[in-house]
């Protein structure tokens, strides 16, 4: 069983913001499935079968900085090992359009990821970071990540989200090392 967690903030106010690219990546997968999300674990989930593998897409609705509450509930329910969890999140330290897989390490300033690592009690959780930056000099981080993409960036991020959908499928079919070699 694979638990894929897309980070973002719930509600129309946050749709298409930089901080919600995790939700958008999962939306690409869910749209292809035709499965309607249902409420569970302080969020929404979509349960899918991929070959012989079960996959659960989790959209925490606890707001970004408290994402770990939702993830911990799903983690405990499904009894998922950490290596079978993939957190998909934004990263303003990476240029727009960049994908980067990591098997562990610090949250790198991503507060939703930091909360997940804290609530799971480990930093050994695979993650797929989607570049939304760089943060313009002198710009407030919160205003930047909660802002929308410029039109030319939006086209690039849409292309990147399609790549992220494929990258997640590769993570399920292969492994983290394979994905790091293909996408980093």
Beta-strand percentage range: 15-25%
Strand order of the largest sheet: 2-3-4-1-5-7-6
Q: Overall mean pLDDT score?
A: 96
Distance between the termini: 24 Å
Structural class: alpha/beta
Structural domain count: 1
Give the name of the CATH architecture: 3-Layer(aba) Sandwich
**CATH hierarchy, class:** Alpha Beta
Largest sheet: 7 strands, mixed
Given as residue ranges, the uncertain stretches (5+ residues, pLDDT < 50) are none
Q: Based on Cα principal axes, name the global outline.
A: globular
Q: Over all CA atoms, what is the radius of gyration?
A: 15 Å
- What is the CATH topology descriptor? Rossmann fold
Helix proportion range:
25-40%
What is the count of helical runs?
Answer: 6
Could you state the order of secondary-structure elements as H and E?
Answer: EHEEEHEEHEHHH
Strand segment count? 7
Site (Stabilizes the basic form of H active site to accept a proton): 90
Pfam family, one: Pept_tRNA_hydro
Function: Hydrolyzes ribosome-free peptidyl-tRNAs (with 1 or more amino acids incorporated), which drop off the ribosome during protein synthesis, or as a result of ribosome stalling.
Organism: Blastopirellula retiformator
Task: Summarize this structure briefly.
39% of the residues lie in helices and 24% in strands. The protein has a seven-stranded mixed β-sheet, sandwiched between helices. It is built from six helices and seven strands.
